[in-house]
Amino acid sequence: MIERTLSWLVRCHRLDHDYERLPAHSEAFIKWAMIGLMTRRLAPTPGRRPWQSTRAS
Known about the structure:
The chain is mostly helical. The protein is built from two helices and no strands. The chain is elongated and about 40 Å long.
């Protein structure tokens, strides 16, 4: 489960590399990424099933 969550976070390009100077900033961006992920899962766009990926397969 942890590896899956980390792979979801890496999809946020800002979290792909460590650009931040302070650990608190990195923590804030991780929280924002998780908030966005959970928001998309709880309220998906109309016509899209929450379990389907937004990327083209």
